[in-house]
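Protein in question reproduced for absentees:

***
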Amino acid sequence: MIVTTVNVNGIRAAVKQRSSENLGLLPWLKESRADIVCLQETRADDEQLRDALAPALADDWHLASAEPHVKGRNGVAVLSRTPFSAVRILESEEFATHGRYIEVETGGATVASVYLPTGEAETERQLEKERFMAAIEARMAQLLAGNRDTVLCGDWNIAHTENDIKAWKNNVKKAGFLPSERQWLTDLMATGWVDVVRRLHPDVAGPYSWWSWRGKAFDNDAGWRIDYHLANAGLAERAVSARVERAELYALRWSDHAPVTVEFS
């Protein structure tokens, strides 16, 4: 099973505005060996998403999506080469309609596409992020107790360690690298979740998966590693490779994130 996660930074932009014959989400999908692709920040309702992905759906990809409740924001989806036996959203009074979590069963595994809020230190936006973190933590505890191959993929908007952000010294008081956020990830992993990419790439800087559009961040590889595959221990043990599909040049990017791909045996 090969699973990819990517924040598309707007599905219509990834498909059209930054695409050509050989560039963009759709050409990438045609070349991908992935069995399952988790998408975040689609910024589209279900109809718009299906329209944007129509060529991929014609190629027999199956689609499950959770549209955002606010136009032009959030939105998550899962593409799979095999049909879904179940599709679920987050059971949360506050976040069920926010388009930040969708979970499917396919190919003998449970796979979720996750998009955490960005947050902003010492503001209501950060409190909202923390409430979402609590809601997803509760769901993850249920999944872990289910004893099923499970992986949650997505844009977690948290760099876990100093190895996960190039300019970590400049960000210790900013959302995405706050001590409380980093500890939350540490605590999740202590319960049995495994950061698969880090397990396969220990003690190295990166591999980063997000770079600002501005300046020379991409050219200088001054990025953040915030796109994770968190798997239960049994599935994580079967991870044989992990890579960030980083574009060769800034001009070839179709999102400010790069796809992160993990292969399980």
About this structure: The chain is about 25% helix and 25% strand. The two ends are 7 Å apart (CA to CA).
